[in-house]
Design goal:
Blueprint: H1 2-22, H2 31-44, H3 60-90, H4 106-139, H5 144-160, H6 166-186, H7 192-211
C-alpha cells in the first residue's frame, strides 16, 4: 500500500508540473523537471534508468533497424493519413507557429535537431514510456491489464503535453505516443527503438519545416 501511495504522490507531482507549464512557469521545457522527478523516483527505489528500458533491444543493429523503420512509418502515417484526416474532420490545422522561425534558418534548425534528439527523443521517451508507463502500471500490480491501462492513461497525458499545437496536435501526438508505447512493450520494454523512431520523426519534421515543405505550415 505504501508503494502505491508513493506512486500516486509522484503522479500528482507530474500533474502539477503540467499545470505549471500551462501557466508558463517552467522555462524551456517541462521534460527537464519530469526527467529529474523520474531520476529521483528511481533512485529512491534503488533502480536505474536501464531498469525501465534504457538498453538496446537484443542488439544495436536490430534496435537501429527497427527504430529507423518505425520512425519512417510513423512520419508517413502522420503526414499522409492522420493529419489530413483530422484536418478534414475538424476543419482546423495543427498550430505549428512556434516552429515557423525554422524556415530557412540553418542555425535554428540545427539547434532544433539537437533538441529533437535530446529533449524529445531521449527525454520524452525516458519520461513517458520509461518512467510514467511503469509508474502507472505499478498502481495496478503490473498485470497485463495494468500495462494496457498505462498505455492509454499515459498517452492521454502525452497528447495534452502538446496542447500548444491545438486539438489536432493533441490527438495526433497522443496517437503517435500510443504507437511508441506499443513498440516499447513489444520490444521487451526497451526504449532503444522508440528513442530512435522518435528522434527520426522529429528530425524529418524539422528538415521539412526548414525547407518550407511541411504540409500544414
Amino acid at each position: 500500500m505504501k508503494a502505491k501511495l508513493i506512486a500516486v504522490a509522484e503522479l500528482v507531482i507530474v500533474a502539477l508540473i503540467f499545470i505549471a507549464d500551462a501557466h508558463h512557469l517552467i522555462p524551456l521545457s517541462k521534460t527537464l523537471p519530469l526527467v529529474l522527478l523520474g531520476w529521483l523516483s528511481l533512485r529512491l527505489r534503488k533502480l536505474r534508468w536501464r531498469d525501465v528500458g534504457l538498453t538496446v533491444y537484443r542488439s544495436w543493429k536490430r534496435s537501429i533497424a527497427l527504430g529507423l523503420a518505425l520512425g519512417v512509418a510513423l512520419e508517413a502515417l502522420e503526414l499522409f493519413v492522420t493529419q489530413p484526416l483530422l484536418i478534414r474532420v475538424l476543419h482546423k490545422k495543427p498550430d505549428l507557429d512556434l516552429f515557423r522561425a525554422l524556415n530557412g534558418n540553418i542555425k535554428l534548425t540545427l539547434l532544433a535537431i539537437a533538441g529533437a534528439w535530446t529533449l524529445a527523443a531521449f527525454g520524452e521517451e525516458m519520461v513517458y514510456r520509461g518512467y510514467l508507463m511503469n509508474r502507472v502500471a505499478d498502481l495496478f500490480d503490473r498485470t497485463p491489464a495494468a500495462w494496457i491501462a498505462s498505455l492509454f492513461i499515459v498517452h492521454v497525458g502525452f497528447g495534452l503535453a502538446h496542447a500548444y499545437q491545438g486539438i489536432i496536435g493533441i490527438i495526433d501526438e497522443a496517437l503517435m505516443g500510443f504507437i511508441l508505447g506499443i513498440a516499447y512493450l513489444r520490444c521487451g520494454r526497451s526504449l532503444a527503438v522508440p528513442i530512435i523512431a522518435h528522434g527520426l520523426c522529429d528530425t524529418i519534421d524539422v528538415i521539412l519545416i526548414y525547407l518550407g515543405k511541411y504540409p500544414t505550415l
